[in-house]
Amino acid sequence: MAESAPTFTVASAPGRLVMAGRIDERARLAELAETVTAGPLVVDLGDVAYINSLGVRDWVMFLRRLAERGVEVTLERCAEPMVLQMNMILDARGHARIASFVAPFACDGCGWEGGRLIVTAEVLPVVEGGGTPEAECPECQGRARFADFVDRYFLFLA
Ligand SMILES: [Zn+2]
After folding, report:
1. Is residue 46 pLDDT above 60, yes or no?
2. Disulfide-capable partner of 49 in 5, 75, 97, 109 (CB 3.0 to 4.6 Å)?
3. Closest C-alpha among 124, 33, 26, 117 to residue 73
């Protein structure tokens, strides 16, 4: 349930932020952007469970502030809710580079369904070549197939 998504947490280290939980207006991302004084910055979004429309607005502002200051941003392990936003809203990716992200897969062999981490540099040639990404099923080690529309889910990488 989205409403019960854990509250927002952020852990920071030099050059790195790890965001987790629910991104909404209480996440105060604009203020967080002010704490980043120099780049480059890596933002880990792997444990973001949910983002609402106000959270998206603040996220876009977060990226804009950093872009204004010339801070290079790389996003790692973008969780599915973030990918969905980046596919709908160009500014939700902004100037950021996407190093890796989660995509939905399903295994016909054992019925497993879930997200798998995708490395952009590995999947981009596949997608651009008209192919469909595959992943190893974590349950049976069989071949899991991508479980969304390629032309829609990977739109944000263009
Ligand atoms: Zn399987």
Report:
1. yes
2. 5
3. 33
- Label residue 103 exposed, middle or buried (CB < 10 Å: 0-12, 13-18, 19+): buried
Going from the Cα of 10 to the center of ligand 1, the distance in angstroms, rounded, reads: 34
Verify that 90 and 109 share a domain, yes or no: no
- The pLDDT tens digits of the residues spanning 59-72 come to 999 999 999 999 99
CATH of the domain at 40: 3.30.750.24
Cβ atoms of residues 144 and 74 within 8 Å: no
Query: Residue 124 C-alpha to ligand 1 middle, in angstroms?
Result: 24
C-alpha dist (Å) from residue 8 to 22, 46, 67, 73 = 5, 13, 23, 20
Residue 134 CA to ligand 1 center (angstroms) comes to 12
Domain assignment of residue 36, given as a range: 1-98
